[in-house]
Amino acid sequence: MAGRLTDKIALVTGGASGIGRATVLRFAEEGAAVMAADRNPGGLEQTKGLAQKISPDIETVTVDVSKLDQVTHMVDTTVERFGRLDVLVNAAGVLILTPPLAEVDERLWDLMMSTNLKGLFFCCKAAIPAMLQNGGGSIVNIASMAGVQAYSQSLPYAVSKAGIIHLNSVAASQYTSQGIRLNCIAPGFVDTPQARGSTQSTEAIEKAARYHPLGRIGRPEEIANTILFLASDESSYISGSTFIVDGGSWSVASRL
Ligand SMILES: NC(=O)c1ccc[n+]([C@@H]2O[C@H](COP(=O)([O-])OP(=O)(O)OC[C@H]3O[C@@H](n4cnc5c(N)ncnc54)[C@H](O)[C@@H]3O)[C@@H](O)[C@H]2O)c1
Q1: Computed from CA positions of residues 237, 139, 176, 173, in that sequence, does the dihedral angle turn out positive or negative?
Q2: Which residues line ligand 1 at a C-beta cut-off of 6 Å?
Q3: Total domain count, the chain
Q4: Would the pTM count as exceeding 0.90?
Q5: 213-251, pLDDT tens digit by residue?
């Protein structure tokens, strides 16, 4: 069923890797024009090369989402290139494992808060006026199961992701009546460079897979498919919601 995003203009942060890259490719397959944004220009070029095998309507912009002037430039560049903005996917994020609260380095707290939470706030802040100019749009925010459960391995990450879930609810209460739907996804363990970088071991990934009812962790494409649904008009009656996409692992963990 191709064409689920025909004529839509989408902006995807974190587009150089993992879930963001899978989303850029999925959106291209479904007919969207896509601006892939990231702080990693080399990764963006790779994404563009892959996406252009599917569609010519792919562009890239380098951005540090924690800097408001760069985020404003990212949105302006998208509107200048494609004419308007219909969909924003906030997938840029960083996870660094930390010791318990009393030993958390202030620098790491600031890094994860300013990237994951403040950066997502900046992206919404810059995109919403552009979306309102054309009667609305859809924003998909990528949180994490770490923002739902007590994820002990990185308190700053977990708190930033819990903040995203609440930001999503509050912003949906403010903008849904004006035609902008905001929804959130809380992925479980997904096989991306972030997941492999934070665990630093294939063994840890294999161990995690054993706790999943499906016998494996998630694939970025599986999160991208949920993002696609929420970005498209198929989810026209959904706003302010958070979707857990974890292969059923939460229900298993809560029974242990
Ligand atoms: N992989 C998982 O298990 C998992 C689980 C739950 C949630 N998530 C979330 O999904 C999103 C995507 O993560 P992923 O697993 O694909 O990781 P990833 O590391 O593959 O991709 C994250 C991307 O964000 C970019 N980024 C980081 N800081 C940035 C900044 N300041 N400005 C612009 N870009 C920046 C990175 O360059 C990278 O390309 C993140 O928000 C992550 O927290 C991932």
Answers
A1: positive
A2: 13-14, 16-20, 38-40, 43, 63-66, 91-95, 115, 119, 142, 144, 187, 189-190, 192-195
A3: 1
A4: yes
A5: 999 999 999 999 999 999 999 999 999 999 999 999 987
